[in-house]
Amino acid sequence: MSDSDQLRQTLLAMDGRGYPSYKRLARSYGFDGFTLRVDHVQGDPFAAPSRFRVLVGLERAGFLASDLEQSSRTIALRDYLARQFDLGCRSASRGRGSGKSGSLSVARCGQEILERSSVVFSEDHLEVRFLVGLPARGRTILGREAAAMLCDALPPIVDRALRAQSLCAEELREHLDAAEDADAIRAQLEPRGLLAFVADGAVLPRRSGIDDRPLEEEVIAFESPESLRVEIEAPHAGPLVGMGIPRKSLTLIVGGGYHGKSTLLQAIARGVYNHIPGDGRERVVTVKDAVKVRAEDGRRVEGVDISAFIAGLPMGRTTTGFATEDASGSTSQATSIIESVEAGAGLLLMDEDTSATNFMIRDHRMQRLVAKDKEPITPFIDKVSSLYQDHGVSTILVIGGSGDYFAVADTVVAMENYRPWDATEEALQIIREDPPTRTREAGDSFGTIAKRRPLAASIDPRKGRREVSIRTRGLRSIEFGAVEIDLSALEQLVDPGQAEAIAGALVFARQHHLSSASPTTVEALLDGVEEALETRGLDVLSDRTVGSLVRFRRFELAAALNRLRSLQVERDVG
Question: pTM (2 decimals)?
Fold first, then answer.
């Protein structure tokens, strides 16, 4: 009797028994063309689903060696297979009893092509990790339903989703080509002195704030202004024409309300990721070190030198190692900028709609009423140029309320009915005809970015008797031990699996890269985690075999660490 037949007989024999009998399933079963491995069986039908794996030999899977050897294509292939397996699971899942009974699921994918732990390749096989809601009514096993799920419904899913000959070859090629093209474009940005590329024909508007798919009705395709038009060669799409944003100190995106300013900035922010064919932003590509920052009233700050922006606080409070449990809009935005640069950001993205007004600008009338020696904030307008000159950090800023920024801008892109035009010369002419009357409130130097060293004891995942207690709530927050990390302001987090992986990365960093005897810097901690992910993959972040982890960027890991309310740091002085 084959293993699959034995599994069927075992499940039929379990019919009507108590739920704990399912625990006997935890082993491997040989099917025709694949191996089914049961890693963990849930405690009852209302608990988290059971963890299963399917392993298919590479020869039987039949994918091209070239797609398994090139990083960009391999990640895209894993992403595509996860989507195909998900389609099969959704078609086969149905209610088969109480709670989660009858569900087959793999971690869902969004519009981005990301490295995922749900599908991995080893030297000799392809592995898919998925969840199964083992059928039961109450705590009574529905063995016949379980046999139908695992022995009848699962094999066709595996055959259709994980074998090259069963897939749509054209669709698969387009998925892989889209990722490889985007990576190739991104690799050309820095050598060509560009921050971002937005291809002609791109569709930027989304359906809604909670639906990231492209808008389908009344869409105006993107078309570059002639003066900013560049041509970039992609390995599969060939020559692509679109808008290139030059790497300079400050690029402004201006225009009337509802004309597409924030939509363009959001597309640029998401351009740090590759997108699936049909998303509309497949060829909107941004340098990988772009970070979107905003004001965050109420966030915690620990030991950040924000004196470049804020100094001379009342009561003699220092800002060279600023700490607070309840930051204001201006102090939080200043903090996020410094933290982003500390983590290695080379491009800041900001929107005045989510910025603190008093941090962005002080006009001449306010300067007359409140003298500089009574105002601790040096506005961003007076620091943006030195930030670029001293630290090589560029800024793209959406603004519609202050023309004073024209005087410090290198490029001005105006949006009109979702169509961009180069307004740089017009903005400069306005400055020539009507020079700003405000007084610059900063010197020529930006200031240093002080190194911080997290203290190991302050990154504590323990809760009660559990040595590691972490849980995520979508993209909103991480429960890390006894404290919560608010992720709601991290706009470049796009997949709940990234939050789960970040939680694991904080534990990993605490265990492997932080020493109470010799604290390491934030930069070195981030480097260590990235190196581990590059060499060992996402599995290094969990002590279990799970399929729910998604690769994150170092900037979002740093942001989560900085929002950990128990965090304590040492600072390098001098």
Answer: 0.96
